[in-house]
Give the backbone structure.
Amino acid sequence: MNARLVGVLCALLTGSPVLAADLYPVQEAPPVAVAPIAGGWYLRGDIGYAFTDLRGAHYYQGPGRYVRDFDKADLDDTWTGGIGVGYRATEHLRADFTIDHLGKSDFSGSTSGSCGVATYCTSRDISSMTAWSLMANAYVDIATWGRFTPYVGAGIGGTRVKWDKLKNTSCETGNSGNCDGTVEHGGKESWRFTYALMAGTAIDITCNLQADVGYRFRHVMGGDMFGEKWHGGPGSDKGIYVHEARAGLRYNFGDCEQAVYVPPVPVEQPVYK
């Protein structure tokens, strides 16, 4: 009996490595991420809110043609929207060409000095402006964390600024109510050099579609604003700062990297002898 028991135990001990080899665990391969392939065209569309900052305005006054600054020169905030086409050159570098419209922004200003009804008057000046920008832009996509890819960028181009006619009404300073008639100066339009700085984050929606939220700063250089009328004018603005909070979509035409199936990798177990 004892001999039989010892034989069974020896057989079990001898066969245990074989059982272990049959039951070894496997290590699953890590999943392969699906992402756009570097290199490919994309379309973009953006809308946003623009905080406009007019850097000032001046005009020529009187027969002596001396230059006067507006005492006050403000532009209201407005909306902006644009479209563009771009190319993703590498995983981190891309560029695009965009056309953007700056919606109607109302201008209010004032000047002070002599006028027809009194020796000292304060004027009320109202107008509005719109603009179109054509920009060439380049971006650095810093890195991707999950669905999020932050970026920075810069652009240069031109902006076509169109001013509406300026309505100028001068009144005696104080509460007398004595005012000159309103004078209308013809509005001007001109192309101005523009540069831009951008920062934001792209958010993956699908492999080919991304949301884009960010900030853009544009500096539109100064230019003609309104024409001459009755020894007043012409006038020019000193440039515009545009601070934009934007959101949009980018559609990538390039193919996507497909996840490749990797079979489970067995983990070798030590062999006991």
